[in-house]
Amino acid sequence: MTADRIAANSSSQQPDAAHRPYREVTDAHGRVYRIGETDRDILGHSRTLMVYLPWIAMMAISVFEYAYGSAEDTLSHAHGWTQSNTFWILSVWVFFQAGIAFPAGWLREKGILTARRAMYAGSGMCLIGFLALSHMSNVWLAILGFGVIGGLGSGLVYATCINMVGKWFPERRGARTGFVNGGFAYGSLPFIFIFNYGFDTANYHRVLDLIGCYIMIVILASAFFFKDPPKNWWPADIDPLTHAGSRKNTAGLSKNPPAVRQYTPREAIRTGMLPLMWISVVMTAGVSIFGISFQVDFAKEVGFGPLVAASSMGVMAVINGIGRGVVGWLSDRWGRKPTLVFVIVVLGLAQFGVIWAGEVRSEWLFLFFAFLSGFGGGAFYPLFAALTPDYFGENYNATNYGLVYSGKLISGLFGGGLGSMVVAAWGYYGAYALAGGVSMLAAALALLLRQPGRGRDVRRLPQPAG
Question: Residue of 106, 112, 367, 429 with fewest CB within 10 Å of its CB?
């Protein structure tokens, strides 16, 4: 049974779209779809802009995580920091970058924080982060400025950009989410070169200050156009009850059907699927962060030259980003879950491959498995970002994905901190073997994922108001 009613926007709901008619249709599961309004009706332009602007902003903030390692030596000499100091600055950044996703999502869905305001706040905090890294020699102040404030700012931008794409492309979010997420990795490439070849103790103030200003300006300019669609919005040219439409628009729906209803965070947790996704993120992201943290050191340990060590990190960053876009596109065709399992298995095999390359002292093998590790170590992020609204709907996605992504909080600790302890106790070979085993266990857990309510008799549940 389906219900179909005609409605009109009230000025309190959508002031700039008043009097524009839309229909709300309800499917057999009780999920409501709002159809009739096109993206141009709501935005005044194509929703494609809601892909490119988040992508640009994500490239801007990528310097925080993926280029930081290239700046560590100069920062240590300039400020008198130890290697442990620089490690903890980044670890604190990872903690707060991941940790802000859930509270930011909750504030957005309560109407307290709009997408645009979240981006504005994030831009200013990102600037403060780089100014602190530039001018604070006291390591605690640097941790507060770059790690805490910069982490919160970049986390606000990251979460807002990923959530924006999921809301505007409910029928084919895989490729677009992957494309936007990829910018967070390969966007760092110019900064990796800058930090390796044009960054020293004579100019570090100027370089870091300019990078901070650049990030703020790019985010501000992108954020000016940010706008969420109305609750339950669905593209006007696709019937959500039959998925009738062009093959281009509906190819992903056959493999990734929309969520049966809009799940609140509490309801999503009760399904058991959100906690399972969280555990999978903890394990997979931990292996990824371990690879980012120790790959160059391992290359030096087994006697590979500095060019190979540095090149392996560059390969990892580029493939990490490109892989996110590729698997997003692939998941629209294979299905989100099979693609996720494939990616996690590849990540696990790459860890064992790195061991093999080290044992036979093959630089080419090492670069090849660095390629695979980079691919697997980034590609799972957009898959979880797309899988969350696939399972739980778009209306509460900012909060639901914030909960899933918060698994990176724990990953940052055991991927880096505990990883260093395992390296000290078991050596690099033992640590990489453990990482490979953890990844394979995560793949096994991912096999247990299923869309709540799909494929079995489900009683019709009322939709939450709004």
Answer: 112
Strand, coil or helix: 164: helix
- How big is the chain, counted in residues? 466
Q: What is residue 224's three-state secondary structure?
A: coil
- Please tell me whether residue 460 adopts helix, strand or coil conformation: coil
Binning the chain into helix, strand and coil, the percentages to the nearest 5 are: 70, 5, 25
Q: Give the pLDDT confidence of 430-461 residue by residue, as tens digits.
A: 989 999 999 999 999 999 999 998 765 344 44
Furthest-apart CA atoms within the chain: distance in Å: 71
pLDDT band for position 2 (50/70/90)? very low
Query: Are the CB atoms for 249 and 411 separated by under 8 Å?
Result: no
Instruction: Give the gyration radius of the chain's Cα atoms.
Output: 22
- Taking Cα atoms as reference points, which of 412, 379, 416 lies closest to residue 282? 412
- Residue 453, sorted as left (phi over 0), alpha (psi -120 to 50) or beta, turns out to be left
Calpha distance 155→135 (Å, rounded): 22
Q: Is the dihedral of CA 377, 383, 389, 394 positive or negative?
A: positive
Q: Is 217 helix (H, G, I), strand (E, B) or coil?
A: helix
Residue 127, amino acid:
L
- Residue among 94, 127, 91, 312 nearest 219 (CA): 127
How many Å separate Cα 263 from the centre of its chain? Answer: 21
Q: d(Cα 214, Cα 127) in Å, to the nearest integer?
A: 9
The H or E element that residue 23 is part of is strand 21-26
Mean pLDDT of the chain: 84
Amino acid identity, position 129 = G
pTM of the entire predicted model? 0.80
Number of H helices and E strands in the chain, helices first, is 21, 3
Cα of 179 vs its chain's centroid, Å: 11
- Tokens representing 260 are 């049966």
| Interacting residues of 256 by C-beta distance below 8 A, sequence separation 6+ | 174, 331, 332, 335, 336, 386, 390
The answer to whether residues 252 and 141 touch, using CB atoms and an 8 Å cutoff, is no
